[in-house]
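Section 3.1: Structural characterization of target chains.
Under the original work plan, the team committed to producing a structural model for every single-chain target entering the pipeline before any wet-lab resources were allocated. The record below documents one such target. The sequence was received from the expression subgroup and is listed exactly as submitted; it comprises 296 residues.
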Amino acid sequence: MAGIVSVSRTDLAQRRKKLRRQRQMKILQAFWRTCAVTGLAGGLLWAAIQPMWVLNAPAQIVMKSDNQLLTDKEMQSLLVLSYPQSLWRIKPGAIAESLKQQPTIAQATVNRRLFPPGLIIEIKERVPVAIAQMPKGQQTPACGSNSPQQCPQNGGNNNRQVALGLIDGSGVWMPLEKYTSLNPTSKLPSLKVIGSPEQYRSYWTQLYQAISQSSVKVTEIDCQDPTNLILKTELGKVHLGAPTTQLPEQINVLVQMRHLSAKLNLSQIEYIDLKNPESPLVQVNQKDQKVKPQTR
């Protein structure tokens, strides 16, 4: 029995010794792990504060629009940054938001580039669908989400009212000079809209979608009279009355009248009255007669 007790004590002593060695090994491993993490963090911090991670000139920025590189002049007209500036202090989100404040830019993404240090910027420009003509006596419309005071003015005179601009499919106004300076070779739209964008912004998207899908060509939209929207079309002038949810239906009726030239001399038509799409009328010049056309 004494031998058995002696062997058990020795075994227990060896086990305790083994456990102490394991604890010491774990402590040593934790120590070296801490040293490695601290060293790595310190190395990254040291690398981050080196002069190479500095934005020194616009040449370190790449800006693309629909996979096309913008020139330095175009980029500088859109982007305002001070140099030199630490790459790590630059806020890509803030730059993207400032770019989206530009009237010609719909979307923007900004990312840091580490090798070589710089920025990669991708923008999506607004596509103009109409030339907007506004009477000079009216207020300059807001450019994108900017206030009127922030919109560029034609001729560089802040007291001069903007007369011409461009609008996209959602009714956002773009100063003509701003767009052409960024897109000097782009062809301007043939459609013209007259009146303040504030007058037609609420129904512009609905109206433009209906017109763009119509087989009857529309060259001009006169929105100056809020009680009578007037279209200039290949069939002649079309009076739609006050804009309502019936706009698509009115345009559909106009499409059904596209063969009107086979029945009437278009030069004799003063205007087509579609204020009531269920009962369209054609006002002719001769004796101010009104003709009710067949639309089907």
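Helices lie at 2-48, 72-78, 92-100, 176-182, 197-212, 247-256.
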